[in-house]
């Protein structure tokens, strides 16, 4: 028990340093557990047989929303990624969504007692402007760019992009502590160029003061230009190794169900948006539109807004060898920036679960 407390303490410190700021937004320390009553298409499953899953508010949890309707799963929803450390380490949950770096840290600190099932969120960072024109990263030269996530994933990503575009000494980065603070500063006219994650890009765009705000650059696309071996990845799904070993069929079903849920979210954005909001994964402000609209214009606006937000959240489920290749390419960038961010070394191949 003493050893477990020591492991958890180290992991909590690591995650506090490198929380997936781009995916989770401001921390909400409240955690809710959801057991959905079976509907007409879901068979009743005894609670003792349900798979316990932890999801994070924000894009990292959005792709799982259809599973909230499936009585095979019992969900714990949290706004604080640091809670994942305790939930998965103590066995309170079997499967969890988490920041990519946290998976490597947990694997190292628990001696291989977790494995990665898949990547579930690619990049969600965007350059947004208010009153200036930016068409490429080169256009940031000589400008001050405001962002959040100092000492965390966003800083590593942005520094890598600036370095590989020979802009390290030409762009001034000003870090703020919270996304909401940055949105407010933009709305007051104090910021012309910022880097924001979804859903805060959409939250900012819904403000009257920022009606002329423009999404100038998708940093996932910029990453892919200079890191062609694999796309930018920011979130993943992990499971306890013991659970995987004892329940291979259940793990296979979860992966299939999660893939189906991701497809559902991307293909049915309006319906998915309603579920995402009603389950507390995102606040309704992320999908807000003009209150002046009505009728067909209102419905069209809802469709366009939902599709826009969900598309920019880059929700996926990538497993198998592609998961491994993509994750390793991202881990190499983290390692070069701060090796302690992923447990001090590149993860072993055994981190990755590849179905046989």
**Backbone CA Rg:** 20 Å
- The best one-word shape is globular
- Low-pLDDT segments: 2-30, 35-41
Q: What is the N-to-C order of secondary-structure elements (H for helix, E for strand)?
A: HHEEHEHEHEEEHEHEHEHEHHHHEH
The counted number of beta strands is: 12
Helix count, DSSP H or I runs of 4 or more residues? 14
TL;DR of this structure?
The protein is of the alpha/beta class. The protein has helices at residues 2-17, 21-24, 59-62, 82-89, 100-109, 153-164, 179-187, 200-205, 219-226, 241-246, 248-267, 269-278, 295-312, 320-337, and strands at 31-34, 51-56, 73-78, 95-99, 114-122, 125-129, 144-147, 172-175, 193-197, 214-218, 233-240, 315-318. Residues 2-30 and 35-41 have low confidence and may be disordered.
Defining traits:
single chain; 356 residues; 7-stranded mixed sheet; disordered N terminus
Please give a structural write-up.
This protein has 356 residues and is an alpha/beta fold. It is built from 14 helices and 12 strands. The strands form 3 sheets. The protein has a 7-stranded mixed β-sheet, with helices on both faces. Strands 9-6-10 form a 3-stranded antiparallel β-sheet. Helix 1 runs antiparallel to helix 4, helix 1 packs antiparallel against helix 5 and helix 12 packs across helix 13.
């Amino acid at each position: 028990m003493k050893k477990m407390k020591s492991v958890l303490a180290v992991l909590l410190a690591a995650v506090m340093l490198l929380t997936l700021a781009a995916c989770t937004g401001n921390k909400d320390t409240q955690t809710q557990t959801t057991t959905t009553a079976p509907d007409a298409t879901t068979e009743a499953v005894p609670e003792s047989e349900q798979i316990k899953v932890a999801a994070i508010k924000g894009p990292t949890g959005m792709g799982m929303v259809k599973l909230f309707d499936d009585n095979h799963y019992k969900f714990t929803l949290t706004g604080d990624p640091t809670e994942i450390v305790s939930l998965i380490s103590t066995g309170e949950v079997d499967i969890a969504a988490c920041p990519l770096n946290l998976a490597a840290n947990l694997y190292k600190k628990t001696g291989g007692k977790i494995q990665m099932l898949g990547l579930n969120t690619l990049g969600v960072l965007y350059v947004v402007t208010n009153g200036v024109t930016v068409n490429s990263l080169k256009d940031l030269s000589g400008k001050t760019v405001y962002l959040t996530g100092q000492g965390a994933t966003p800083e590593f990503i942005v520094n890598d992009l600036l370095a590989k575009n020979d802009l390290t000494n030409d762009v001034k980065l000003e870090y703020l502590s919270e996304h909401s603070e940055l949105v407010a500063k933009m709305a007051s006219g104090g910021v012309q160029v910022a880097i924001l994650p979804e859903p805060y890009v959409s939250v900012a765009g819904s403000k009257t003061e920022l009606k002329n705000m423009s999404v100038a650059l998708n940093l996932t696309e910029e990453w892919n230009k200079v890191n062609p071996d694999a796309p930018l990845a920011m979130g993943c799904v992990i499971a306890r190794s013991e659970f995987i070993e004892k329940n291979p069929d259940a793990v296979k079903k979860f992966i299939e169900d999660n893939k189906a849920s991701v497809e559902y979210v991307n293909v049915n954005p309006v319906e998915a948006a309603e579920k995402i909001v009603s389950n507390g994964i995102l606040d309704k402000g992320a999908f807000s539109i003009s209150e002046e609209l009505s009728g067909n214009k209102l419905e069209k606006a809802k469709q366009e807004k939902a599709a826009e937000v969900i598309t920019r959240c880059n929700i996926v489920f990538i497993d198998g060898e592609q998961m491994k290749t993509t994750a390793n390419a991202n881990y190499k960038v983290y390692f070069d920036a701060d090796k302690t961010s992923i447990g001090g070394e590149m993860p072993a191949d055994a981190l990755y679960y590849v179905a046989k």
